[in-house]
Write a structure and sequence with these properties.
- This protein is α+β, with helices and mostly antiparallel strands and 82 residues long.
- Strands 1-2-3 form a three-stranded antiparallel beta sheet, covered by helices on one side.
- The protein is built from one helix and three strands.
- The model has no long low-confidence stretch (mean pLDDT 88).
């Protein structure tokens, strides 16, 4: 089924990667620069299998207090086919 809200992303992210993803987002918020930042993680597919992705993210916008409000990223499937 489709995702309905931002919190639903936890339904497709691998449980073992959720902490690293949270740390990744905290690092974006705390960094004195806007990136790029890299992370690898797993996402569940419709058939229930897991695939690995590598993401490159930058901070696109911050609020007046410097907190990240918008991230721009691109992810590539890096799952080995062998």
């Amino acid at each position: 089924d489709s995702l309905g809200s931002p919190g639903d992303i936890n339904l497709i992210m691998h449980p073992d990667d959720l902490g690293r993803i949270a740390d990744h987002h905290a690092a974006l918020d705390a960094a004195g620069h806007d990136g790029p930042f890299s992370i690898e993680y797993r996402m569940r597919q419709r058939d229930g299998s897991w695939r690995w992705y590598a993401s490159q993210d930058i901070v696109y916008e911050r609020d007046s207090e410097g907190r990240v409000t918008t991230i721009l990223g691109a992810a590539a499937d890096i799952t080995s086919s062998t």
